[in-house]
Amino acid sequence: MDGLFKTLGDQNRLRMINLLRKSKLCVCEMEVILNTTQSNVSRHLARLRSENVITYEKKAQWIYYSIHEDFIKKHHLLFKYLEDFMDQEPLYQDDLKRLQEYESSGENCETLKRHEKKIFAS
């Protein structure tokens, strides 16, 4: 349990959990939405996977991450607390707005890599 709380004690990982509670995403999508690097996203995802907070599925050449159902079942009160917290904090709400903008843009992993397109003005 100590490892889980250390994992959840990082704001970048909480931001990823926030996005993944709403949508399955690949590394390149989180990279764009969170305005960070691929290596940073991958490192944090590895930590979340090591604690079974998230899981993944491979579709063609892309790997999509999501919240692990077992994590939600085993730690439902903790997950509910995190959701309530994220629903109140402006940073996490801003991330969800960017997620919504991304999903509305029609972009996907393939087109992001092809165009290396910036979706957001800021």
UniProtKB/TrEMBL annotation:
Keyword DNA-binding: yes
InterPro entries named among the record's database cross-references: ArsR-like_HTH, HTH_ArsR_DNA-bd_dom, HTH_MetalResp_TranReg, WH-like_DNA-bd_sf, WH_DNA-bd_sf
CDD domains linked: HTH_ARSR
Keyword DNA-binding: yes
SUPFAM superfamilies on file: Winged helix' DNA-binding domain
PROSITE patterns, alphabetized: HTH_ARSR_2 (PS50987)
Protein name: Transcriptional regulator, ArsR family
Organism for this UniProt entry: Anoxynatronum buryatiense
Lineage: Bacteria, Bacillati, Bacillota, Clostridia, Eubacteriales
